[in-house]
């Protein structure tokens, strides 16, 4: 602009120099940006179980299905104690992997009040949101590209790389279960029993700090007996005319009276199997079984009930023919 206005000679000022000067005085910011930098302050949950943080870290390559494939470490950390509620190496970083780790975490450590996780697509999955809602967990998403929102987990990942991955003997790993067996042994015997100097711990171990607040923990209670149901997926479908509904390319038979209606399939995501049928309110409508077209050849069909013939005098309510009949003959009588 200065060159166009002939205020300075062309090439006298560099664009980058002007930009740095304006930026230093808060005069050059993207459209819609805050006029001041966002405030970040150190924080710590008052009690264990108040806040959990979740994240995924890329791990080592491990034999899976006959090939070397990358494993992903999914971890859930308690904010107040730094205890790892559960952590596992998974074949991917999908919503299903994250849900599996959360399921084991709540079985072992109870229910957190809040769960703070990344903003990635896997964490945004409706299935994860639904499971947290059933468990009464407030799900909170970090701002995109803001790692400072989960700094304790970032430090945990550094510790994990320095003290676990650096010592790992890959020659002893035959599959993912071997890697996880060593992870869980190291967590319980080493990490959870190592004194921490971090904020709020003052030399205590994560396990000691966590156990101080055990009386305050939210337990699963009656949900423990039906924890599998909590993590089942719900998929909306429309029952076909032949009394079936599809899921993952397979067809399942549902109660025939649901034909043509909107239904909700309850699915075990690990077995890829439809278990039952519900309505939108979660009410049980019946079971779902894999379609067996061969067995259906000899299956007795349901026949519609015959409609009883009734005289015109038995017909309830008004109809156009009877109304015209009465009006026409009423005129003749007059």
Automatic annotation (TrEMBL):
Residues 33-214 form the Integrase catalytic domain. This is Mobile element protein. It comes from hydrothermal vent metagenome. InterPro entries: Integrase_cat-core, RNaseH-like_sf, RNaseH_sf. One of its GO terms (biological process) is DNA integration. One of its GO terms (molecular function) is nucleic acid binding.
């Amino acid at each position: 602009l200065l060159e166009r206005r002939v205020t300075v000679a062309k090439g006298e000022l560099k664009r980058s120099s002007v930009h740095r000067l304006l930026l230093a005085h808060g005069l050059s910011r993207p459209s819609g940006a805050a006029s001041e930098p966002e405030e970040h302050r150190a924080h710590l949950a008052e009690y264990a179980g108040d806040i959990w943080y979740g994240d995924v870290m890329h791990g080592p390559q491990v034999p899976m299905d006959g090939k070397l494939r990358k494993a992903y470490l999914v971890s859930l950390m308690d904010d107040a104690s730094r205890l790892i509620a559960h952590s596992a190496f998974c074949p991917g970083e999908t919503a299903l992997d994250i849900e599996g780790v959360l399921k084991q975490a709540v079985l072992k450590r109870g229910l957190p009040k809040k769960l703070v996780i990344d903003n990635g697509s896997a964490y945004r999955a409706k299935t994860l949101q639904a499971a947290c809602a059933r468990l009464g967990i407030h799900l909170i998403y970090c701002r995109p590209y803001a790692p400072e929102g989960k700094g304790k987990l970032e430090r945990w990942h550094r510790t994990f790389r320095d003290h676990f991955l650096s010592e790992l003997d890959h020659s002893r790993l035959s599959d993912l279960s071997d890697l996880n067996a060593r992870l869980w042994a190291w967590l319980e015997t080493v990490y959870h029993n190592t004194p921490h100097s971090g904020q709020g711990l003052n030399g205590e171990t994560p396990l000691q700090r966590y156990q101080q607040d055990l009386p305050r923990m939210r337990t699963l209670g009656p949900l423990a007996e039906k924890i599998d149901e909590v993590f089942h997926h719900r998929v909306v479908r429309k029952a076909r005319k032949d009394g079936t509904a599809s899921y993952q390319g397979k067809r399942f038979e549902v109660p025939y009276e649901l034909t043509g209606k909107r239904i909700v399939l309850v699915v075990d995501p690990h077995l890829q199997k439809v278990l039952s049928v519900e309505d939108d309110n979660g009410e049980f409508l019946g079971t779902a079984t894999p379609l067996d077209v061969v067995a259906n050849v000899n299956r007795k069909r349901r026949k519609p009930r015959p409609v009883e013939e009734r005289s015109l005098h038995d017909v309830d309510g008004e109809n156009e023919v009877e109304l015209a009949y009465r009006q026409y003959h009423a005129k003749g009588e007059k």
